[in-house]
Structure to design on (472 residues):
């Protein structure tokens, strides 16, 4: 929900008031009185001629520092207040409102001939609005209070209920975010079909791809659906699950299947994945590589080998052992090249990534590290699949 | 090789225990892995040995108290459930 400043002036340029954008059909849920005209402060306690009264629609009470409420207020919305004793200038308070664009109200008419109309009468030409805030406006437009909603109480209850719900949701999100970095995880699942297709092709045939750099957008990496080189977690997760299913299938063709081994295969593969990620993390720490690889990136890279494993096992099911070995060999080499080309840009220094040979113990260590991470993938691929193809 | 998550947890606990029992004075200094031998080399990046020594020291410092709790729980569970 974003804030919008509601302008209630009609061309009156006072330093306290802001211009606003009001559009019809939007219901404001809450209002905070932000700027109060200077004369308000003096006129808090007013005489009976300007009696304090509640807004009869949104029930804003006198506790809101309002001297008088115009009946042109929209329920829980823009607050139009008229300063007493002012004749010419309809000086009003401006307020910042919270908008829920999902809640739309019917555009009710208002007595437009009211000379003290406080809102800009844009109802005649809805398209002619100040384009201050793109798309975030509240359409006050002088709705009369009475015919706004037939039951203001239910509207209020709805507003209160939705605000409660959003508060609860915020609380849960905040607490959950401490344990699981949910917002970071969401980035890794921002994929689409084209990306998945291209990435799968890249995993089995990485030889034609030229540019392996991850593109950034002002220091943050671009979402995977816009950049094929960005790591994602969708393919590893789906690959893991498919691997378990395919291994169950493969064991079934050898009459070795029981339902328990599905769980055993899953936990075995998961444990190997965790150990591999821990080993890579440890070695990255020992070699003191300054890299922006996060743990989730490493999980993603380690999960890419499941694709090759699935292809190998399926080929083994279809074509027997020779098919399995040939396909696995092809996939192993592809994953090896893929990992080297991807990790080279992340782990090695700038110059070394270009292919220039730089001597020095540290750069050699980094190269060895890259090679060993890449070499571990084919080993795991063979280790986790050889017992499936009989 | 059939691994379960439980065996992974067991392996991790055993490894952390192994790192925690390396005594600073009696053992690590004798083989040149003491903490006083790791300070130095401010200019360049620390080598692997220095990083390992730092790792051992930090694991010992951080995991000393939690390991007491984890080991007690492990002992009780193994006694009860075998």
């Amino acid at each position: 929900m974003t804030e919008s400043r509601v302008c209630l002036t009609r061309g009156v340029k006072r330093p306290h008031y802001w211009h606003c954008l009001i559009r019809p059909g939007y219901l404001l849920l809450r209002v905070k009185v932000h700027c109060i005209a200077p004369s308000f402060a003096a006129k808090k306690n007013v005489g009976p001629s300007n009696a304090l009264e509640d807004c009869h629609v949104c029930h804003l009470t006198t506790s809101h520092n309002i001297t008088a409420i115009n009946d042109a207020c929209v329920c829980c919305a823009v607050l139009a207040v008229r300063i007493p004793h002012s004749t010419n200038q309809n000086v009003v308070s401006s307020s910042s409102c919270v908008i829920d664009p999902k809640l739309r109200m019917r555009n009710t008419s208002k007595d437009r001939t009211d000379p003290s109309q406080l809102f800009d009468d844009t109802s005649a030409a809805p398209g002619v609005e100040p384009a201050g805030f793109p798309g975030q406006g509240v359409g006050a437009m002088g709705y009369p209070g009475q015919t706004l909603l037939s039951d203001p109480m239910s509207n209020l209850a709805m507003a209160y209920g939705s605000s409660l719900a959003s508060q609860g949701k915020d609380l849960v999100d905040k607490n959950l975010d401490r344990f699981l970095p949910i917002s970071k995880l969401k980035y890794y699942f921002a994929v689409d079909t084209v990306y998945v297709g291209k990435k799968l092709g890249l995993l089995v045939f990485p030889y034609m791809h030229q540019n392996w750099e991850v593109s950034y957008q002002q220091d943050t990496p671009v979402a995977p659906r816009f950049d094929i080189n960005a790591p994602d977690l969708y393919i590893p997760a789906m690959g893991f699950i498919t691997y378990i299913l395919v291994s169950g299938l493969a064991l079934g063709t050898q009459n070795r299947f029981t339902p328990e081994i599905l769980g055993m295969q899953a936990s075995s593969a998961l444990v190997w994945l965790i150990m591999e990620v821990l080993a890579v993390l440890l070695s990255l720490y020992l070699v003191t590589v300054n890299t922006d690889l996060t743990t989730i990136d490493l999980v993603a890279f380690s999960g890419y080998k499941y694709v090759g494993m699935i292809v190998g096992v399926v080929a083994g099911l279809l074509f027997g052992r020779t098919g399995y070995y040939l396909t696995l060999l092809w996939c192993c080499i592809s994953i090896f090249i893929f990992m080297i080309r991807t990790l080279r840009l992340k782990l090695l220094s700038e110059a070394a990534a270009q292919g220039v040979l730089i001597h020095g113990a540290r750069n050699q260590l980094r190269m060895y590290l890259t090679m060993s991470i890449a070499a571990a993938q084919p080993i795991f691929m063979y280790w986790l699949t050889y017992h499936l193809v009989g | 090789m059939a691994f379960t998550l439980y065996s992974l947890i067991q392996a991790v606990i055993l490894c952390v225990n192994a790192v925690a029992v390396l005594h600073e004075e009696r053992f690590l200094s004798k083989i040149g892995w003491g903490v006083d031998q790791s300070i130095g080399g401010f200019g360049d990046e620390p080598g692997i040995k220095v990083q390992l020594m730092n790792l051992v020291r930090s694991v010992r410092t951080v995991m000393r108290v939690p390991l007491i709790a984890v080991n007690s729980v492990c002992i009780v569970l193994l006694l009860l459930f075998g």
